[in-house]
Sequence to fold (462 residues):
Amino acid sequence: MIIEVDRAVCEGHGLCEQTSPEIFEVDEEGYSRVLVGEITPDLRAAAESGARACPVAALFLLRS
Amino acid sequence: MTSALRPPATDVDLFAPDVVADPFPVLAEVRALGPVVYSTRHDIYVLTRYDDVRAATGDWRSLTSAKGVALTDEFNEQLVGSVLASDPPEHNALRGILSEKLAPRGLAKVRDQISADAHRLVADLVARRTFDGVADVARVFPVNVVADLVGLPVEGREKLQPGADATFAGFGPFNDYVMAHLPHLQAYTEWMGTMADRSKLTPGGWGEAVMDAVDEGRLTQLGAIKTLSAYLVAGMDTTVNAISALMRLFAERQDVWAAVKADQRLAPQFFEEVLRLETPVVGFFRVATREITFGGSVVPAGAKVLLHWAAANRDPAKYPDPDTFHIDRKPLDHVAFGYGPHACTGQGLARMEAAALLEALATQASTIELTGDPVRGRNPVVRGYESVPLRVTPEKPA
Fold:
């Protein structure tokens, strides 16, 4: 499982990073960046809650 | 269609003064009736449960904004084609004009200015000791921040907050509140109509950028007025009321005040919890483009649906003990700003304003207390306050 950031939608509110800083950060250009590749089972809860916090629905969990 | 699938009905008027004065017990009853409840009074289907409201808010294909997001046809006629009342892909271009300025990456360059404004305002309040959290803070700070960013002249700004308040009320039924506040709406609209004019706007502001979009053919003159209005109306009452609520909270909950004094990094999550509790904009409307089922109850195609964000944010299934401010709740997925394609474009600015004000208060004030009873506003669409009388003491006595 991986996380996809829709950069056309992301506005850089940073709630993903606030929720799960081990998975997300807002990069220098003000877009969400995923810090890990494959979302292993131990990261899944943090990945889901971070993606869920996105107010503009720019983050998606996809089967890799 | 079998009658078993018809949603339960209520004859309660969710916009009536007695409900507006104390909405949450009524909303809890409506929520308990079922996932979707038909309001006989306004011929609308009301969603109150968090999971349904959030999913519905994100699902623009099933629940369109393009027919307007207000209750009445008269008001929707004014909205259609604006950023609020459009669907992707048209919506994306309109939103882009706002969000290139309002997204946090566009706001980085104004952060220092907003922080300096907040410190100056709070220094004045601390010197006065007693003030009103609404009249002297909440109705001053966001108005000046937004008007400065847009580049509006100082003269006439006093029309903004009353105009925004009346505009928001207009999203609901045209009841006594709306009628009584129409003069504010007219004064504001008249003034705004003259602002889509470069000679009135400070160079380098957002207003000028909107006029550039007109010159480039991305907006019409009427579109420019609507876009400026979107910044202004949305930037007023919502932030005004969230800030009022925050100041009341600090005065009433000394544990919260002590926590933010000890660690200002907690301010952002406290603001989210206040937004969850207060949810200044109670909800907007959509129109069902197809038959939609919520927990076995059917909303027919063409029906008007109220996405009740204030009710969703107090759904006990999502937020246990929902009527209490919890210092460690951190409810970042609340729906006070809506969600998805139509999520509030100005939410980054609202957070920045609140953080600046909180930081200035926590730095400069030692204690904060109420000197009288807070007075609630009566606006049926935007929950807020008329007055929060406060006293502060300075952090370092002179």
Remarks:
- The mean pLDDT of chain B is 93.
